[in-house]
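Appendix B, example 12.
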Amino acid sequence: MSYSVGQVAGFAGVTVRTLHHYDEIGLLVPGGRSHAGHRRYSDADLDRLQRILFYRELGFPLDEVAVLLDDPDADPRAYLRRRHALLTARIEKLQRMAEAVEHAMEARRMGINLTPTERFEVFGDKDPEQYAEEAEARWGGTEAYAESQRRAARYTKEDWKRLQAEVDDWSERYAALVDAGAPPAGEPAMDLAEEHRRHIARWYYACPHEMHRCLGEMYVADERFKAFYDAMRPGLAEHLKEAILANAARHSA
C-alpha cells in the first residue's frame, strides 16, 4: 500500500508543508510517485517518519536526525545521552524560572513590594512566607491571617532582611541544639521555642501559646512543613514540636 501526502500528514499530525520540506532536504523522500507525479509514501516511509518525529520530539535538529538515520557509524546511544543531558539542563532551567515566577506571584499576593531580584537577594533559596503560609494552611481567612497580610504590606526591603536574618540565626542555633542532643523539654529548647513564637508574633500576627501548640502539631502532621524543618536537621520537626508543647505547658503552669 501507499499513501498520499495528505493522508500521511493526517496520520502523523504534521503539515503537508513539513513533509514537502523533509522531501526537499532528503530527510524523507517518498518511495513512489503517482501517475500525476504526486508523492506516495510506503509503510517503510511511515516507519522512517515515525523515527524522525521521535528524534524531533527529543529536540534533535534535522541535520542530526539525518545522521542518526543514515550514517551506519552513528551511535544512537551516544546521541541520546547527549540529548538527555541537554534536556535535563533545560528542565532545570525551566524549573528555576517557574520558581522565580511563583515567588513573584506570592510576593504580590502577600503585598510584599519587592522585585524578584530583591526577593532572592534578601531570602536566597528560602521561603519568606514560611510562617505566614503555615498560619494560612490552618487559619486562612481568619483575623490572624488578615493581620499578617496587613503587616507584610508595610514592610520594606530592609525589614525583610532583618526578618530573614532572625530566621537564619534561629535555625542555626536550633540545629546546633539538636546536634548536641539537647532534650525538647529542656530549658534551652523551650527558650528557642519561645523565641520562635515571639518571632511570629513580632512579624506576622498575635500568636498565643495555644496557637503555637497547633503550629507545632502541624510541623509534623503536614509533610510539607515536616520536610522544611527536617531539612535543617533530620528529626528537627518532631523535636521542635515537643519543645513548643513543653514551652506552652511551662507558660500555662
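The mean pLDDT is 82. The first strand starts at residue 3 and ends at 4.
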